[in-house]
Design a protein that fits this description.
CATH topology of one domain: Rhopdopsin 7-helix transmembrane proteins
Keywords: Membrane, Transmembrane, Transmembrane helix
CATH class of one domain: Mainly Alpha
Helix content: 40-55%
Largest sheet: 6 strands, mixed
Protein name: DUF6534 domain-containing protein
Structural class: alpha+beta
Number of helices: 27
Organism: Sanghuangporus baumii (Phellinus baumii)
Oligomer: single chain
Radius of gyration: 33 Å
Pfam families: DUF6534
CATH architecture of one domain: Up-down Bundle
InterPro entries: ClpP/crotonase-like_dom_sf (IPR029045), DUF6534 (IPR045339), S41A_metabolite_peptidase (IPR052766)
Strand content: 5-15%
Low-confidence stretches: 1-17, 524-552, 554-566, 648-652, 895-902
Number of strands: 27
Strand order of the largest sheet: 14-15-16-17-24-25
Mean pLDDT: 80
Length: 902
């Protein structure tokens, strides 16, 4: 009886204790709320060990099918500092870690996958990602003024966008501003600071966690607003500053300078979170979890031959995949390669005043225009996917033909924010632009390889045994060609005898080399005759000459990469920071799949119970991967993915051709100084010096004079004769190579004279021979570098021999330093105690050390600038001035005085 009474008392007491309010119930049914309220809901869910283990098991075991796991532990140059993610080690770390909430764990896992810097391989949890999307009414842009100065500004069109898309929240943002200041008055304002720091602190902080793209410049560009062509119209993309998929920030402090004002003002704007368009309604925490956080149809794969299951072929990434969504049968038969972002594609309309005029032809994502000059056509290509594969083929071919019928002879292809789609559409576009040739027939795509892990090999074994009679599985050999472009036979074990590799000190295995299967087209292929094309695309926009490509942040197609690198097309980045390299390819893939697709392969092969098979997701999660990896263009034996895809040029010229202009000035100044020194030499010492030294000195001056004339000619052609010709600026005309040998020859002649001094002082064959070998090595290395570049037609090709250039700069630095040190040591040991001799020695030591240090320091600066800012011409400016500097150093070091001593 006492026990019963005690229980009743306890129950009554518990009933009187107020329950903590349900943070998810507090936001249920609301469209707009504060990010802090969303976080409170998300952070209320504790980590459940079984769910944590399930997520990590699926992600880890699915990564066995991702081709680049070991490559991404440390990418080769130029992305060695950008891609350094050991994802398997991070998953092990997450398993051991304790978290205050499931949301905290999700952020850690997602950011770990993002550090792969590969938009083909991502992880989303629809319980959190874009369930609520946070916005600011002030997207920002990075603008360059007429003087070439760059700054971050509030987008001039920001109020137009906000007043339409966020009309019901304008009052909230307006009330946050100081009295008398309106949102409309912020348009175009220069942003001096974000949260008290330089704007690029925020830009780079976002780039560090944004992932998706290898190059820093591409990730930086994602911070800013842009645009995109969709199947239904033109969309405005807010950028990562003004649109966030997770509720991580409540407000932002902006220090601005409004247009036509010199006053700095600091304002605080709150982020506002809007219910995602795909979020299922809920009433409290329980219904939120049930409706949005549990696995749904399509989360996991199915057995394609189970009577109760229906295979729904879809783009990897579902709601995050580029639109429009193709027909399932189209997806089944056509491989895709797509880059995914964590914000679903939806319609924030591009302000009408920013939209182009009516197209001359086109359909959906492919629209064609003709500029006022009558000769330039534009293809705006928002995606490589469409509901119908053949319709998109026809639209592209018909559109190009319509442009030529209207007299267009050159083309710009704008693929800005194009997230990808069918790989064979990229091949098709390449083919109809350049016509039939060895780079487009029998295929216009790069060869690929797939990872050949133990489970993948078992899947192929089961298919060979008859597990896939209807060709539903991607591992079926009937989907692929051999490297010689012949079709693989049915039931062929194409993963047998895998190619073993050691990548970043880890063993890996891949399939044999596979050719493309894009050889049969449903539309007759003809070249668009007489055209010169340019392609533009992605978030770092590109332009290409001959048929033409302009494009950017999202571009990843191997076919487009081939067209640019092999066909001689030109690329131009629109946007980006002047001192940061801009890449036109976000990251080259091959073919994308997701976990559900891999799970279908496993279940259909009856291998779900295998210990290497990932379990079913219990959460509403999406994981994508790069299933096939494209081989390189410049190095066909290695993957293309880590290679640099540099844009040919940028509208910002200060760090490139501005340096070329300064080269002419500095070279002329140094030549004048050297000529004055020569004149002094002729007046005072010419008659007394030895005959060979006179000839030697005058010959050096003649070579230096001819070299200066050639430099001035190059500068005149680039900056005067071809002024405004952006196409020409990326070219490497053959007459540039006429000037190239002069610099190493002058350097070798001056250094040889210094080596002869070492001989006079030491009489040591070993020492002198060592220095002579250094001089000869420098001359040979430089001549070899020049020879290796003689076939280059475009500046970006110089990046392909960057390691050779590094070696050359190191040899130059070592040679100059060695000569200076040796001469210093030998001269210092000559001191005799006689005042006159001491004075001469000290003078020679000072000149030797001084001149040796000058050339050594300049060599160091050239080496460092080539490493740190390789896409500027600072290092070239120094290299071009070195020859004249050597001549000056020789005259300054009192040659005649030195010779008279011996």
């Amino acid at each position: 009886m006492l026990f019963v009474i005690s229980c009743l008392v306890t129950a009554v007491a518990a009933a009187t204790i107020p329950r903590a309010p349900d943070p998810c119930a507090a936001i249920a049914g609301k469209t707009w709320i504060a990010p802090s309220e969303v976080r409170a809901c998300f952070e209320s869910f504790p980590v459940v060990d079984s769910i944590k283990s399930n997520i990590l098991d699926v992600v880890e075991k699915t990564l066995a099918f991702h081709t680049s796991v070991n490559y991404q532990i440390r990418a080769p140059e130029p992305f060695a500092n950008d891609v350094q993610e050991d994802i398997l080690a991070d998953i092990a770390r997450i398993r051991r870690s304790q978290y205050t909430s499931e949301f905290e764990m999700h952020i850690d896992l997602q950011r770990s996958t993002r550090r792969l810097m590969d938009g083909h391989c991502v992880y989303f949890d629809l319980c959190y990602d874009s369930t609520f999307v946070s916005y600011l009414p002030t997207p920002v842009v990075h603008l360059t003024d007429e003087q070439g100065q760059q700054a971050v500004h509030i987008a001039p069109e920001a109020f137009d966008v906000a007043s339409v898309e966020f009309a019901d929240q304008l009052s909230v943002w307006q009330s946050a501003l100081p009295e008398g200041l309106s949102l409309g008055a912020l348009l175009g304002a220069k942003v001096l600071a974000i949260n008290g720091d330089d704007p690029f602190v925020a830009v780079n902080a976002n780039a560090a966690i944004a992932g998706t793209y290898q190059a820093l410049g591409t990730r930086q560009n994602g911070f800013f607003s842009s645009y995109q062509r969709t199947a239904t119209g033109w969309n405005y993309t807010m950028g990562n500053f003004a649109q966030m998929s997770l509720p991580l920030f409540d407000s932002v402090d902006l220090t601005i300078q409004r247009v036509n004002s010199t006053t700095n003002e600091t304002i605080t704007l709150p982020y506002r979170s809007r219910l995602g368009s795909s979020t299922v309604p809920f009433t409290d925490s329980a219904t939120f979890r049930q409706n949005n956080c549990r696995a749904i149809e399509g989360t996991n794969g199915v057995d394609a031959y189970s009577g109760s299951a229906t295979v729904a072929f879809k783009l990897p990434g579902e709601r995050f995949a580029p639109s429009p969504t193709p027909n399932p049968e189209v997806v089944k038969r056509n491989p895709v390669s797509i880059i995914l972002d964590d914000v679903p594609h939806f319609g924030v309309a591009l302000p009408e005043r920013l939209q182009p005029a009516e197209p001359v032809s086109g359909s959906g994502v492919a629209q064609f225009y003709v500029l006022d000059d009558g000769k330039t056509g534009i293809l705006a290509l928002g995606s490589f996917s469409a509901a119908s594969f053949s319709d998109l083929q026809s639209a592209l071919l018909g559109g190009l033909q319509s442009l030529t019928e209207r007299g267009a002879t050159q083309l710009i292809v704008d693929v800005t924010n194009n997230g990808g789609g069918f790989v064979c559409i990229a091949a098709w576009l390449h083919r109809i632009i350049v016509g039939p040739k060895d780079t487009t027939e029998p295929q216009a795509l790069l060869d690929t390889k797939a990872r050949a892990g133990p489970l993948a090999q078992l899947i192929v074994d089961r298919i060979v045994e008859g597990a896939d009679p209807d060709q539903n599985l991607w591992y079926n050999s009937l989907n692929w060609n051999f490297a010689n472009n012949t079709v693989m036979p049915a039931n062929f074990d194409w993963l047998e005898n895998p190619v073993r590799s050691i990548i970043n000190e880890r063993s890996d295995a891949f399939s044999q080399r596979c050719g493309s299967s894009c050889t049969l087209f449903s539309v007759t292929m003809n070249k668009v005759e007489g055209s010169k094309t340019v392609v533009v695309g992605g978030k770092n926009d590109i332009a290409q000459e001959y048929a033409g490509v302009v494009g950017g942040q999202s571009l990843d197609y191997a076919s487009i990469d081939t067209e640019i690198k092999v066909e001689g097309s030109k690329t131009v980045v629109v946007g980006g920071k002047n001192d940061i390299a801009q890449e036109y390819a976000g990251v080259v893939g091959g073919q994308s799949l997701d976990y559900a697709s891999i799970d279908t392969e496993i279940k259909t092969s009856r291998l779900k119970s295998h210990p290497l098979a990932p379990p079913d997701f219990v959460t509403n999660s999406i994981q994508t991967l790069n299933w096939r990896l494209a081989f390189g263009v410049d190095n066909p034996e290695e993957p293309e993915v880590p290679n640099m895809s540099s844009a040919s040029g940028s509208p910002g010229l200060d760090s490139t051709y501005g340096c070329l202009f300064l080269t002419a000035i500095f070279s002329a100044v140094l030549w004048t100084t050297g000529s004055l020194q020569l004149l002094s030499y002729l007046e005072k010492h010419f008659r007394a010096d030895k005959f060979w030294l006179k000839i030697y000195t005058v010959l050096l001056w003649i070579l230096d004079t001819v070299y200066l004339i050639l430099i001035l000619r190059i500068v005149y052609i680039y900056l005067v004769r071809e002024f405004g010709n952006m196409d020409f600026l990326d070219r490497l005309p053959k007459y540039i190579y006429v000037s190239s040998p002069f610099s190493p020859i002058i350097a070798a002649m001056v250094q040889s004279l210094f080596v002869s001094r070492a001989w006079y002082l030491s009489k040591s064959y070993i020492l002198t021979s060592g220095l002579a070998i250094c001089v000869a090595a420098q001359l040979v290395a430089t001549i070899m570098y020049i020879q290796n570049t003689r076939h280059f037609n475009h500046l970006e090709q110089l990046a392909t021999i960057v390691n050779f250039e590094r070696a050359m700069n190191i040899i130059v630095l070592f040679t100059d330093t060695a000569i200076a040190i040796v001469l210093f040591y030998l001269l210092w040991n000559l001191r005799s105690g006689f005042e006159r001799t001491e004075g001469i020695i000290k003078r020679l030591v000072a000149y030797t050390v001084g001149t040796g240090l000058i050339t050594s320091i300049m060599a160091i600066i050239a080496f460092v600038t080539a490493e740190v800012i390789p896409h500027s011409f600072v290092y070239l400016m120094i290299d071009y001035c070195m020859a004249t500097l050597y001549f000056n150093c020789m005259l300054a070091s009192s040659v005649h005085l030195f010779i008279k001593m011996f």
